[in-house]
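Let's practice the habit of predicting before peeking. Look at the sequence and jot down your guess about where helices and strands might fall. Then scroll down.
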Amino acid sequence: MAKKDYYEVLGVERGASNDEIKKSYRRLARQYHPDVTKEDRKDAEEKFKEMSEAYEVLVDDEKRKLYDTYGHAGVSGQFSGGDFDWGDFTHYGDIRDIFGDLGFGFGNSIFDMFFGGLGGAASQGNRPRKGESLRYDIEISLEDAAKGFSQEAKIPTWVNCEDCKGTGARGGNTITCPTCGGKGQVSTAQRRGYSQFVSIQACPKCNGRGVIAEKECSKCDGRGQIRKTSTLKIEIPPGVDNGTRLRIPGAGNPGRNGGPPGDLFVVVHVKEHELFKRDGPNIFIDWPICFTDAALGAEEEVPMVGGKVKLKVPPGSQSDTVFRLKGSGMPKPNGRGKGDQFVRIKIKVPTKLNKEQKELLEKFAEIEPHEKSFFDRFKLWH
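Done guessing? Here is the structure:
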């Protein structure tokens, strides 16, 4: 089933500001709260997930740019498994603020409580949790961006401790957390006028697991994980643009309680070039030519990214004339051909002339037809 346009889902224009997007999301989030909406609970859940996916993309400048350029295909790589899941949502604070104002409380597992209510406080702490994602910044040249680039990178990560199998407990022996009684959560209640605000949070003692180590593992000091530097081969596809974020699934920190590892996001920075300017797949360059070539016409060998290309300059070309060389720009995403290169010629006027050059130009000046000056034309009118 085809996805709806994100702007349509949130009911905003394509040029909407972040404030307008947040305002619309806030309005819709209130509308589809299960204790408020008149719609079927399951339909409300689906609509809330759909609008939260749209909000996740449009309120993030990088994701929004990818979506505006490539549509849903441009942002699918930003989500786990290629499709949006609650584990990809990064704006829990916004939800907490919205429903805190209404008197509803939310803890760490906001969406489980959102659609499961606040009753039946089954512990969420022992559930498998995805590991944290990591970021790695890499700087490459424009030439490398054009042809693609690979590099082995050393990524500092956390890995599960082999001695305790990630439990943090010596021999894997654990006991029930005395703070939360094994629930993994603690709650506090506050009254606001006629409403009661209930805050449910992960237990600070056991970090939501419900158990603590009977004796801490000596190798990892009870963390369950140890630091390690991993070597990873990073592949940069041809045509990558400055600021592009590439996702490598499963290359982040390990998950908790058997959960999947996080992802690694590689942020590409393309260095500025001394000759070329870039706008998406198109390349721009100013190229100087002598005035005689501009007058008589010439074939110029002009640099392009990663090579050279022939440019025919017709006789009588003027300075600042722009020529378009089709297919001589940067590769487009997904192998959809290349952009173009635009060459703007700049005519050089000699500042020093030898005797022969000066004599030839003087002869040319004698025979060159001159347009009437403004004052000459003015005389003809009177």
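How did you do? Residues 255 and 282 are 42 Å apart (CA to CA).
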